[in-house]
Every structure is written in structure tokens, then in C-alpha cells.
Amino acid sequence: MNRIDVLLWVVLAYASITVFVVGHVWRYRNGQLTWTTRSTQLLESSRLRAGVILFHVGLLMVLGGHVLGIAVPKALTEAVGVTDHMYHVVAVSAGTLSGLIMLVGFALLMARRDTNPRVRATTTNIDRATYVLLLVMLLTGMYATVVVNIFGGGYDYRETVAPYFRGLFTLQPDIGLITGAPWAYKLHVVAAWLLYALWPFSRLVHAWSIPASYLTRSPILYRAAGPGAVARSRTHS
Ligand code: HEM
């Protein structure tokens, strides 16, 4: 174990988790008015719709896969009768599909942001850093799932990356488990540490404000403003 390994897999990991937690508390207390998606829907909505739906549906599926593959120990899935082969077939097919959906959504959103001057003008440096990290996560995740597992000899991350990750939360990270992983997995995890550290300072905070009340509240009515607006709206209704 060398110093770089300790730096990447222990120091960076705990620094990122700490910044994630403390950063969120700080942002919540000091940045209520900036706790938003900074939506650009009013500037352009038709190209936004497809991209935003595909990106979030793909992301939710990817996150479900991560909970199953990383948070749930392999011994547990085996205990309930899921064989290695069954797990592999489901993980690779669902992982590829969900990663692709997320990637197409991400590509649509980035193309819209780049080609629409009004949307591009709202893009900040923190946005750019977030998008670069998301792209690295997507590409390395897809490489691991598709190239390593389908076209390569396969790699059982449930014996290595997953227990390393869980070990961080029991304060016993086993660095030896991750240092031998293929480069794509290692780059994926380093990018995740950087993304988590950036999260509280970015528009990603909107993830914790799921607008569930939208489903039950009464619709918002938009009316034209200015002299005669009320009379005009009556004649149109
Ligand atoms: C430290 C946290 C994370 C760990 C340990 C991790 C680990 C992994 C592993 C092991 C795979 C490969 C699965 C395989 O070989 O079949 C994977 C795939 C993937 N990851 Fe992550 N990941 C993390 C965070 C994230 C985040 C935050 C995102 C996106 C926002 C993400 C996006 C993806 C995508 C798109 C794939 C490919 C599709 C899939 O297999 O679901 N990951 N991740």
C-alpha cells in the first residue's frame, strides 16, 4: 500500500463524505434562496422535456442497481437463492439499459445547453464541473458494465469495490480490495468522491427537495397581467 493509495481511497473518501454532509448543512442554513434546480424551462421547454425525463429515469434505475450491487452484500443475495449467474445476467442487462437511457438523456441536455444561447448564458463554472464529473461517471460506469463485463473476461466488483465502499462506513476500509480493480472502476469511484464534494455547492441539491406535493396540490393558474387583463381573461374563458 503506497501513499497515493491512502490518499485516494481513505483521505479523499472521508474528506468527500465530510464536505458532503457539512456542506449540505451550511448550504441549507445560508443559501435557502439558491436551493433550486436553477431551471431553464422558461427559456426553452420542448428540448428540455425529453432529455430531463430520460436522464432522471435512467438515473433512478442506475441508483437502484447501485443499492443492490454495492450496499447489499453478496452473501445476502446468495442466501435468498440468487446465484452468481442470475445476478450477472440481470445486473449486466439492466445496468446497460439504464446507463444507456441516462447517457442519451444527458447527451440531449448537454446538446440543448450548448446550442441554445439563452440556456448557455445561464451555465456557471460549478455547472461545468458537475457536467464533466457526471460524464466521467457515465462513461467509466458504462465501460465497466459493457466492456469489462460483456466483452471482457468479467469482474466481480461485489467481492472488491462493494466491500471496500461499505467498509468506509464501519470505519474499516480495506484499501487492498480496491487497488486491484480495473482502472475504469477506480476512476469511477474517484470521480464519485469529487462529485459528492461538489454536490452541496451545485444545483444537485435539488435532489433532496422532491416536489411530492405537486401530485396533490391544486394547479397554479397563470393569468396575464396589466390593464384590462381580468376583463380579457373573462372573455377568453
Ligand atoms: C462511490 C460511489 C459509487 C460506486 C462505488 C460505484 C460503483 C459502480 C460499479 C462497481 C459499477 C459497475 C457495475 C458493473 O460492472 O456492472 C457502476 C456502474 C455505473 N455507475 Fe456507479 N458507483 C458510484 C457512484 C455513481 C454515481 C454517483 C453515478 C451517477 C451519478 C454513477 C453512475 C454509474 C453508471 C451510469 C453506471 C453504468 C450503468 C450501471 O451499471 O448501472 N455511479 N458503478
Using only C-alpha atoms, the radius of gyration works out to: 22 Å
**Mean pLDDT across all amino acids:** 92
Largest sheet data: none
Task: From the 3D structure, determine the CATH topology.
Answer: Fumarate Reductase Cytochrome B subunit
What is the CATH architecture term? Up-down Bundle
List of distinct ligands in this structure: protoporphyrin IX containing FE
One letter per element, helices H and strands E, the order comes to: HHHHHHHHHH
C-alpha termini separation: 73 Å
| Domains, number | 1
- Stretches where pLDDT is under 50 for at least 5 consecutive residues are none
How much of the sequence is in beta strands? under 5%
Give the helix/strand class: mainly alpha
> What is the number of beta strands?
0
Helical segment count:
10
Fraction of residues in helices?
55-70%
What form results from the Cα inertia axes? Answer: globular
The CATH class turns out to be: Mainly Alpha
CATH superfamily: Transmembrane di-heme cytochromes, Chain C
